[in-house]
Amino acid sequence: MEILGKNVAEWGIAIKQKQWFIPDTLSVGLSNHLIDLLNKVLPENLYQPRLEIDDGMLGVMYGNGFHFLYNNQANNNLGSDGYDNYQAPTSQGNQLYSRRLWVKGSINFGANIVRASDQLNCIEKIDSVRRLGLSTFVNINRDVTTSTNASVLKEARTLLYTNEPYEFKPMRHSFPNFTFTQEVKLTSSDLLKYSMLTYNMHKIHIDKEHCETVENLPNVIVHGPFMVTLLLYWFRKLYPEASIESINYKNLEPCFVDESFTLASVQKSEYEHNVSIVNVQLGKKYFDGVIKFRQM
């Protein structure tokens, strides 16, 4: 434990001195592939037509979780779990942890609307490294701007690194009277498509054998970003005239493929909604967050 702590501390000092520049270009084609996937998994009343190159909707969709399609890792240095190790705790090139989980995040969307072929410049930095027991939390800040330096979004992501296998902890949540709900069920092919669209090779989303034998997970799990996208996209359909300013969220427990779940919301005020992803029958709460609308 002392050696692990020393290695993490040394890595943390060095990694916080770095930053990464990840350029990308806003694409109608890539966004349409995600629309096709969302149209498959959501009911007909939430149908979204494919985008045209000049219809002005591309920038709107970017603010509904479509930003996860862009400015992604290069996948040049994969860890044993399939994900890029460029921001993972290491010592002399060797990974210190066998598992990683996306545990929470926040996104603040700028008021600037982006359009097809706009350049998206992302600067990533490690904000903090915090050890808790045998695990380590890594907080990442991302700042995305256009080629003219107009702010598009500011995002924070927190990843948990651990060598502890998954352990099921039975807990039944109670739930409020939701304002809106929408049931969803994803298949393994849906997760594979989302992994391909977001250049995400993390095995916990696509490799059941890895999940069972290495991570003690009973099945592959839904991506954290996919759940954020589903909620933001659903909210735009519920409130088409509103502009989403921000979302803050936590991933509370794994959401396994082929397990039905419900997108749910409770309106707190005119501009603020509590959102969650739950399975009421099982008493499970996978995701908890707050969406705020921009005050017009």
From TrEMBL:
Gene3D superfamilies associated with the record: Hotdog Thioesterase
A single cellular component GO annotation: mitochondrion
Coiled-coil annotated residue ranges, if any: none
Domain of life according to the entry: Eukaryota
One function term, GO molecular function aspect: (3R)-hydroxyacyl-[acyl-carrier-protein] dehydratase activity
SUPFAM superfamilies: Thioesterase/thiol ester dehydrase-isomerase
Protein name: Uncharacterized protein
Organism: Scheffersomyces stipitis (strain ATCC 58785 / CBS 6054 / NBRC 10063 / NRRL Y-11545) (Yeast)
Phylogenetic placement of the source organism: Eukaryota, Fungi, Dikarya, Ascomycota, Saccharomycotina
